[in-house]
């Protein structure tokens, strides 16, 4: 069999050939020698690939290249010892230290060969119970920040949840999914400053206060169900008029039915006719935010915002979406 002398080719030719290989091919070839791994690191452009690593029982990394995604399963020895016939294997699973070390070592190697940073981290706090400090130590020692964090929160583990908030510099997006639980999360003591904050699940989410929300420095604040009253939201609107959430463009809260008179008390508000339709579209929203009518208020700097709560059949426990959009300057 005739071998292909890739390592002996000119650098420009190597680089051209490499552009036609998918990342899994590159990773397989890089196993041939340390020299080959280092060569790929040097010829692959820095921003060609982006890595999304999952610290879940089914550990894996998505390697993204423009519009293509490539899945790479990360093997670790503990996975071979899982009793898949046990109906409780999902609930009983917790990573061992050695498993975390295997995943992080594998990710360091993939990152080096593909010359790519980890842009997204997904952590199941149940699977990673007791191991979050180990993951954060690894991540913070390899890069200063990360674009996106996904957190799946199903087992009470407040200390490690908050450690993630305090230890990571998140640039773009924090996504939190809270599974149904009777567990009351302790009060938040962190200021969120990423661009996009998204949370779903939980019942009343008392761990995030209205003062927390007013202190957030986010473009989108897209949250779940809360027990804020009409008086609370009146206080929020007044705080926004006076300058809180200065970067915010979109707010979503699930709230009980609000009294509009209480909500707008002491505020100069303009009611839009239902025939007035305004639409806010953004790539982060699954569907555009549409206002048919709504209420306008202005911040002290002149920026216009519209808010509205669409109320269906009133139930004392039911939440209805309260949406608010801050329109571009000059609107």
Q: What does the model show?
A:
With 331 residues, this protein is an alpha/beta fold. The chain folds into two domains: 1-44, no CATH class; 47-81 and 92-326, no CATH class. The chain has helices spanning 11-18, 23-30, 34-43, 89-92, 97-113, 132-142, 158-167, 210-215, 230-241, 260-263, and strands spanning 50-55, 60-65, 68-73, 118-124, 146-153, 170-178, 196-201, 220-225, 250-255, 270-271, 277-280, 289-292, 295-298, 304-309, 320-326. The strands form two sheets. Strands 3-2-1-4-5-6-7-8-9-15-14-13-10 form a 13-stranded mixed β-sheet, with helices on one face. α7 (158-167) links the parallel β5 and β6 (170-178). α2 (23-30) runs antiparallel to α3 and α6 runs parallel beside α7. The N and C termini lie far apart (70 Å). The model has no long low-confidence stretch (mean pLDDT 92). This is Sdz-33 F-box domain-containing protein. It comes from Caenorhabditis remanei (Caenorhabditis vulgaris). Residues 195-251 form the Sdz-33 F-box domain.
């Amino acid at each position: 069999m005739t071998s292909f002398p890739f390592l002996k080719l000119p650098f420009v030719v190597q680089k051209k050939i490499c552009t036609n290989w998918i990342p899994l091919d590159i990773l397989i070839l890089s196993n041939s020698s340390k020299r080959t791994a280092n060569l790929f690191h040097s010829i692959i452009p820095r921003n060609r690939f982006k890595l999304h690593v999952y610290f879940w029982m089914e550990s894996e990394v998505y390697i993204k290249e423009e519009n293509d995604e490539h899945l790479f399963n990360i093997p670790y020895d503990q996975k071979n010892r899982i009793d898949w016939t046990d109906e409780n294997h999902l609930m009983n699973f917790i990573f061992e230290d050695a498993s975390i070390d295997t995943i992080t070592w594998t990710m360091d190697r993939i990152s080096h060969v593909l010359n790519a940073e980890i842009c997204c981290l997904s952590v199941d706090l149940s699977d990673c119970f007791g191991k979050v400090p180990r993951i954060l130590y690894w991540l913070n020692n390899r890069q200063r920040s990360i674009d996106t964090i996904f957190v799946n929160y199903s087992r009470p583990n407040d200390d490690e949840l908050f450690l993630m908030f305090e230890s990571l510099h998140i640039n773009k997006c924090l996504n939190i999914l809270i599974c149904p639980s009777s567990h009351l999360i302790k009060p938040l003591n962190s200021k969120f400053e990423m661009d996009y904050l998204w949370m779903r699940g939980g019942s009343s989410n008392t761990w995030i206060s209205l003062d927390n929300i007013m202190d957030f420095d986010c473009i989108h604040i897209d949250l779940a169900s809360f027990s804020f009253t009409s008086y609370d939201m009146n206080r929020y609107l007044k705080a926004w008029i006076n300058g809180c959430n200065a970067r915010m463009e979109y707010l979503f809260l699930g709230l009980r039915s609000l009294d509009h008179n209480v909500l707008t008390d002491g505020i100069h508000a303009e009611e839009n006719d239902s025939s007035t339709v305004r639409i806010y579209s953004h790539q982060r929203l699954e569907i555009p935010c549409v206002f048919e009518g709504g209420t306008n208020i202005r911040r002290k700097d002149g920026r216009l915002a519209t808010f509205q709560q669409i109320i269906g059949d009133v139930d004392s426990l039911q939440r209805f979406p309260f949406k608010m959009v801050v329109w571009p300057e000059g609107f």
